[in-house]
Amino acid sequence: MPEMPEVETVRRGLVEQVKNKKIVNVEILYQNLITGNVDEFIETVTNARITNIGRRAKFLLIYLDNGYTIISHLRMEGKYRVSSDESAIDKHSHAIFTLDDGQMLIYNDVRKFGRMQLWPTATLDSNKSLVKLGPEPLSDSFTFENIKPRIVKHRKDIKTVLLDQSVMSGLGNIYVDEVLWQAKIHPETPANHLTDEDIKIIIDCSNKEIQTAIISGGSTVRSYLDANGHKGTMQDRLKVYGKEGEPCARCGTTIEKIKVGGRGTHFCPKCQVVK
Ligand SMILES: [Zn+2]
Q: Distance from the CA of 202 to the center of ligand 1, in angstroms?
């Protein structure tokens, strides 16, 4: 599943390839891709120019010059490709935006879980998918003062709390495991047991982890590719995710995999302690 760093990598690729291009034709080949009326979507998007590509957590925001924005959530397997070659279109291509330079922005989604929604740009903050998102790493609002109360009000395990996108947004299963390993905190620690120091370390590690992940183009754990078709290299840098049975890079103890809140969770039983 693409996580926030992968979506940021996709965003940067799309900025290079489609910013300032005009959409001259739209084909929606899988109607359920669009949240809302498909005909209205096509009518509004056709002949609009893409002014920029933004992102909020794992949502891509395709800003148009007509006052609307396409909110695109890739979910499990959604991908964008930019190509002028018809052979780039296959049975998993669900939306094709033909651009005024002859290129096509093609949305592919094997699992069909991704969604696109058209929304007035002026009221994006009130969109129900975006309004509930907590502060995200590397943003101005990702401060100790903002994050601490969102964490310590929960008695649940910290792994589940960090995955809750209303607490903080942008960290998915891979990066929560990595952050908790970096912070030396056991994933089953009740969130309200964490000290101020623990929370500061979580914030610091989250920023570093996301920064590193963005620089390395995200992780390619399943079939993620960026808009240029490049694979990320982050998976080579992961310390615990997918490393069960291997020695901890810090202490040599065997990494274990357990279920926490229903999610596969990787941790070092020696250097990550329950608080
Ligand atoms: Zn260890």
A: 17
Q: Is 230 annotated as a binding residue?
A: no
> What residues make up the domain containing 258?
144-267
Q: Confirm whether 273 is domain-assigned.
A: no
The Å distance, Cα 182 to ligand 1 centre, comes to: 10
How close is the Cα of 267 to the center of ligand 1, in Å? 8
Number of compact structural domains in the chain: 2
Mark whether 110 and 220 lie in a shared domain.
no
* Residue 166: Cβ within 10 Å count: 10
Q: What does the DSSP 8-state code read for residue 253?
A: P
Based on the fold, state whether residues 98 and 153 are members of the same structural domain. Answer: no
Active site residues: 2-3, 58, 263
- According to DSSP H, which parts of the chain are helical? 4-18, 38-45, 128-131, 144-152, 158-163, 173-183, 196-215
CATH, residue 105? 3.20.190.10
Per-residue pLDDT of the chain (275 residues; tens, 9 = 90+): 677 888 888 899 999 999 999 999 999 999 999 999 999 999 999 999 999 999 998 899 999 999 999 999 988 889 999 999 999 999 999 999 999 999 999 999 999 999 999 999 999 999 998 999 999 999 999 999 999 999 999 999 999 999 999 999 988 899 999 999 999 999 999 999 999 999 999 999 999 998 888 887 665 444 445 566 666 666 668 899 999 999 999 999 999 999 999 999 999 999 998 88
